[in-house]
Design goal:
CATH class of the domain at 4-39 and 62-78 and 240-322 and 469-521: Alpha Beta
Strand content: 15-25%
Radius of gyration: 22 Å
CATH topology of the domain at 4-39 and 62-78 and 240-322 and 469-521: FAD/NAD(P)-binding domain
CATH superfamily of the domain at 4-39 and 62-78 and 240-322 and 469-521: FAD/NAD(P)-binding domain
Helix content: 25-40%
Shape: globular
Distance between the termini: 12 Å
Length: 522
């Protein structure tokens, strides 16, 4: 008889896990609290006639293995590439653009610093060493760091051998990239503020920290490992929004026999005799299962869904301290016209990531502001205008914009209900400084503070990654030592969400890896 598996949370990793488990012969049901499947990767109408990706908003980290195995293109997924990676308008009316062609980008860097242009290729090569190692490790299950078996020792040895194959200077550089701040790294390498800002922005995406905080260089690396349509380092847009990704995943999961239930919030994971028995729904209904897989923030699972007597004190203590705080504020904006930037925008720039944060010092001040006042008085804003690539999202001649913003203190909690609109106005002010027609062109908004992200999507602390990407919460220690292999202390209870290796972003890799380990066990 097929094993009964329940997956808590219908986000992309849960759907990926469901597909692999169903293909492996399990009887799988996905339980999603909201009425729409997809978790944070959903497309919804937020103003009459205007649709957009509500939370997750851009494509690069979705793993090719997952795309191929789940036949996502056969289910209609189409990803188009940005014609320009990023556009950085500057306060003085100039701009800095990350062009796709290397020669064009080096010429752009050279406008601000010939020395930086001459050095950039070497810097990029050093990043690629680290990025290559991270890519290799993404599909691996991390070794256990205690109570290790032969298989775990072999994994640790293989990792060490891979590291030892690097030259001495490459090892030193790799250790630096995993430990120093992005600000220190970039200040050591470059002199141009626009270049440092454009590269350094990736270090604070979903990271409630200054770019000068130790370890932030790794967050930068986490965001540059992606690819689009087989092209490394590119960013793209899913036609129809991010919901097109999860709808394709759901179609494949159903074809393989998985059931997907919406409006089914889980109140408790039920246990008996030290083993998982199933779940109790918010409705009071109980569902029995051999296996329960949590595609939710691990803090939510261990502190809220498991009975207290089933969570040992050391695990409770760990997740009380587990850091979930990305400092992110999301807005979706319906526009009557395109933003008209004061800075000259090259062809394709309005279809890129438009970053409004001219220097590392600006980003540092935004974080310090948030700690003191609750949110940055001059926040970091990245704007995407996906309707320039996808006319299905807005009425003809009109547009939608995604605003991904930092830094906003998640510790305000429910107090964000009183601060939400003032923070949104501050964000609009920043964009309006660069594109003076922006405010007047707004016809509708959707505003999501860190509290709203937690209440709507279960992102504890508004954390888009299900846990901070620092060395104490990575690889074998994600979400804690002893659970880095997607298993928990309770037989039959597994993890498959972004709170496991390799971390956040719409990758599908945690779901892929967790399914592999579950099928090995059963």
């Amino acid at each position: 008889m097929a094993k009964q598996a329940l997956i808590i949370g219908g986000g992309h990793n849960g759907l990926v896990c469901a597909s692999y488990l169903a293909a492996g012969g399990m009887d799988v049901t996905v339980l999603e609290k909201r009425e729409v499947i997809g978790g944070c990767a959903v497309t919804e109408e937020f103003h009459p006639g205007f649709r957009n990706s509500v939370a997750s908003y851009t494509v690069s980290l979705l793993h090719r293995q997952v795309i191929d195995d789940l036949r996502l293109h056969d289910h209609g997924l189409r990803i188009v590439e940005r014609p320009v990676n990023n556009f950085l308008p500057l306060p003085d009316g100039d701009s800095f653009t990350s062009f796709i062609e290397e020669s064009d980008f080096l010429a752009e860097i050279g406008r601000f610093s010939r020395a930086d242009a001459a050095h950039y290729a070497n810097f990029n090569e050093s990043l690629e060493v680290a990025v290559g190692l991270i890519r290799d490790l993404m599909l691996e299950t991390p070794p256990r760091l205690h109570e290790s078996g032969i298989g775990d020792l072999w994994k640790a040895f293989s990792l060490s051998r891979r590291f030892n194959a690097l030259g001495g200077s490459a090892k030193q550089e790799l250790l630096r990239l995993f430990s120093v701040s992005a600000g220190e790294l970039l200040d050591d390498e470059f002199e141009s503020d626009p270049l440092k800002a454009l590269v350094g922005f990736d270090a604070i995406v979903g990271n409630y920290a200054s770019p000068y905080q130790a370890g932030s260089a790794y967050v930068l690396l986490h965001h540059v490992i992606g690819e689009v349509n087989g092209k490394p380092g590119r960013w793209g847009h899913a036609i129809g929004g991010m919901g097109a990704i999860t709808q394709a995943m759901a179609d494949e999961a159903r074809q393989r026999g998985a059931r997907i239930e919406t409006g089914c919030g889980v109140q408790e994971v039920t246990c008996r005799g030290g083993r998982v028995q199933g779940v109790t729904l918010d409705s009071g209904e109980t569902l029995a299962a051999d296996i329960v897989i949590a595609n939710i923030n691990p803090k939510l699972l261990f502190l809220h869904l498991l009975p207290g007597d089933q969570v040992p004190a050391d695990i409770q203590d760990h997740f009380q301290r587990y850091k979930c705080q990305s400092g992110t504020f999301r807005m979706n904006v319906a526009l009557s016209e395109l933003p008209a930037f004061k800075a000259t925008a090259p062809e394709g720039a309005l279809s890129s990531g438009i970053i409004m944060a001219p220097s590392l010092a600006y980003m540092d001040h935004a974080f310090l502001d948030a700690r003191q006042f609750g949110y940055a008085r001059a926040p970091v804003v990245e704007m995407l205008i996906p309707s320039t690539l996808d006319d299905s999202l807005a009425p003809a001649g009109q547009h939608v914009a995604s605003l991904f913003c930092q830094q906003f203190n998640p510790d305000l909690g429910a107090a964000w209900q009183d601060q939400r609109q003032a923070a949104a106005e501050t964000i609009i002010d920043v964009v309006n400084q660069y594109a003076p027609n922006f405010r007047d062109s707004i016809v509708g908004t959707q505003v999501l503070s860190p509290w709203d992200l937690e209440q709507t999507f279960g992102l504890m602390g508004g954390d888009i990654f299900h846990g901070r990407l620092t060395l104490d919460q990575l690889f074998s220690a994600r979400p804690m030592i002893g659970m880095g292999q997607y298993r928990t202390h309770l037989p039959g209870l597994y993890l498959c969400g972004s709170g496991t290796h390799p971390g956040g972003g719409v990758t599908g890799v945690p779901g892929h890896n967790a399914a592999r380990e579950i099928l090995r066990d059963h």
